[in-house]
Specification:
Layout lengths: L8 H4 L6 E8 L6 H9 L4 E8 L6 H10 L5 E4 L6 H11 L4 E4 L11 H9 L5 E5 L11 H18 L11 E4 H6 L9 H11 L4 E5 L15 H16 L15 E6 L5 E6 L5 H7 L5 H8 L20
Parallel strand pairs: 1-2, 1-4, 2-3, 5-7, 7-8
Antiparallel strand pairs: 4-6, 5-6, 8-9
Helix pairs in contact: 6-9, 8-9
């Protein structure tokens, strides 16, 4: 499978201040993985591609090794035994060196050209994590009715435990600040990684955004792997991640302090809902546990940005 899209520095280093680590778990995707990686490389961002081959047995591994040797894949991790998507994702997260991490499947269902849309709330200092929702009006292939019912039910149950108002908990596209992502105690080996990651972000009081994305779902004949057993297991993972330990530590990175979910509707309107904030910043400020940084800077004359955003340095050497 050949793709003529550029893969050099000119194609991937446009936003030099922030590096995006793309974690791609791969299992038996010989027909699609090269095109998937090429699509990621076309995105005009500073991108690190990390592929984890979960013991594929269909010829996927030689394709990945060739892409690594060509420099298209930055890091290739090999599993000797099939352990599941969650195990592959966890390993990829630990290997990531970027400022922000996103999970990307290798099956062409999700379009990486939407990375800049997902990244914007983080760059603007508004979010610690961004979910791409398939149910907010983006274009999508019409497929299985009962899958959509199951997704809705799983999201509802997850929201009941996390007190979030997500529309698509099971989405693959979860983009998270790297320091936050690496702090989450993730344990799920298979598709339970989705509800577990959602629960851990809620426990960390992360600020979460949702943005609409497109979705080109595939059929089982085309290679779709998740099945009804994974759906049933997801209910257990929701309960386990929310009720049993280990819980995620509170996130104290830039911009942290209270958990929010903000949804960019297709019309451009924004819906902002504050959730699970047992002690507001103002309450902690009055008690002396939080200092108003903007007030301190006004007193000292420091004009530094207090938005909590990930800043783009003016002069950053190209990472190659």
């Amino acid at each position: 499978m050949n793709d003529s899209s550029p893969t050099g520095p000119e194609a991937r280093r446009h936003d030099r201040g922030i590096r995006l680590s793309v974690v791609m778990p791969v299992y038996n995707e010989e027909r699609t993985v090269e095109k998937s990686v090429a699509r990621v490389r076309r995105v005009p961002l500073d991108i690190e591609v990390i592929c984890i081959d979960d013991a594929s047995n269909d010829g996927t591994r030689p394709v990945l090794e060739r892409l690594r040797d060509e420099g298209v894949i930055d890091t290739l991790l090999l599993q000797d035994v099939n352990q599941g998507k969650g195990a592959a994702v966890r390993r990829g997260i630990q290997a990531a060196t970027g400022d922000v991490v996103v999970i990307q499947d290798a099956d062409l269902e999700y379009d990486p050209s939407e990375f800049p849309t997902l990244l914007k709330p983080i760059l603007d200092g508004l979010a610690d994590a961004v979910f791409g929702s398939r149910f907010l009006g983006g274009p999508h292939r019409v497929l299985y009715f009962w899958h959509s019912v199951g997704n809705g039910l799983l999201t509802l149950v997850s929201n009941m435990f996390t007190d979030l108002n997500l529309t698509d908990m099971e989405t693959c596209y979860k983009m998270v600040r790297a320091d936050l992502m690496k702090s989450l105690p993730l344990r799920a080996d298979r598709f339970g990684i989705e509800p577990e990651l959602t629960a851990r972000l809620a426990q960390a009081r992360a600020r979460i955004y949702e943005v609409p994305i497109s979705y080109a779902g595939r059929t089982y004949a085309e290679g779709k792997k998740i099945n009804w057993k994974d759906g049933v297991a997801a209910f257990w993972h929701i309960v386990r991640a929310n009720v049993l330990g280990p819980r995620a530590p509170l996130y104290h990175g830039e911009g942290a302090g209270e958990s929010v979910v903000a949804t960019h509707a297709p019309s451009g309107a924004e819906r902002l809902v504050r959730v699970r904030s047992p002690e507001s910043t103002e309450t902690r400020r009055r008690s002396g546990t939080v200092t108003d940084r903007s007030e301190q800077r006004r007193r000292s004359g420091d004009p530094a940005d207090d938005s909590g955003s990930l800043r783009r340095p003016e002069n950053v050497a190209d990472r190659s």
